[in-house]
Design brief:
By secondary structure, the chain is α+β, with helices and mostly antiparallel strands. It has one domain (about 5-200): Orthogonal Bundle (Helix Hairpins), CATH 1.10.287. About 40% of the residues lie in helices and about 20% in strands. It has five helices and six strands, in the order βαααβαββββα. A six-stranded antiparallel β-sheet has the order 1-2-6-5-4-3, covered by helices on one side. α1 (about 20-25) packs across α3 (about 60-90), α2 (about 35-50) runs antiparallel to α3 and α4 (about 115-130) packs across α5 (about 190-200). The termini are close together.
Length: about 210
């Protein structure tokens, strides 16, 4: 049976060796020491801009694939460094201050998924196909993008970012929306509520 994940309102990627923080910031086009919300927002923007699906020809596909890999590697290193820096405070029993995705995207919503990271990602990917057109999938980085079209000429990018929660078996997800045009984005609460209903619904077992 396909894994399920329940939403509850409210781990780190390993970078490839050989890249330092200075190069990672430069790869993202950011000054050294840029605040974390800016790093995350820049990463999400760049992976959308350089997605191979928007390539004009095969050569462009190759260039975009390489660029996306570089962006992801740089982000992985910065995320890993941030996690290691926060770890001592967590070990002493102090609560780590949560990063604010709200600072990175105008409209966002944070939820907790009652499932492991892998199961939550698979379940969200499954229901994402029911909500709109899945345009980007990066399981290693925990990023999904879905293009939803509430009206024929008003497309919205729904970005879903996942990372392991502080409790075992819990995954934290942040949902954000950005309009693909000058129109307002689709209502985020409606999209998240629809996803919650789809996640809670029983799904057919996989054929043997």
């Amino acid at each position: 049976m396909a894994p399920s994940a329940g939403l509850r309102d409210d781990p780190v990627m390993e970078p490839a060796p050989g890249m330092g923080q200075g190069i990672a910031f430069e790869m993202l086009g950011l000054p050294h020491g840029a605040p974390w919300p800016e790093v995350r927002a820049t990463y999400l923007r760049l992976v959308r801009e350089h997605h191979p699906d928007t390539a004009v020809d095969l050569a462009d596909v190759g260039r975009r694939t390489v660029r996306t890999a570089q962006i992801t590697e740089a982000y992985a290193l910065l995320a890993s460094s941030r996690e290691r820096a926060a770890r001592p405070a967590v070990d002493r029993g102090s609560k780590r201050a949560p990063w604010r995705f709200e600072d990175a995207i105008d409209d966002s919503r944070r939820v907790l998924l009652d499932a492991s990271f892998d199961h939550a990602f698979i379940a969200l990917l499954e229901v994402a196909h029911l909500v709109g057109a899945v345009s980007y999938v990066d399981r290693g980085s925990g990023v999904l993008e879905v293009i939803v079209t509430p009206l024929p000429t008003q497309a919205t990018s729904l970005i879903i970012y996942l990372e392991p929660g502080e409790e075992a078996g819990i995954t934290e997800a942040v949902f954000g929306v950005e309009p693909l045009g000058s129109h307002p984005p689709a209502l985020l609460d409606d999209l998240v509520d629809r996803i919650a209903v789809l996640l809670a619904a029983p799904r057919s077992p996989e054929p043997e």
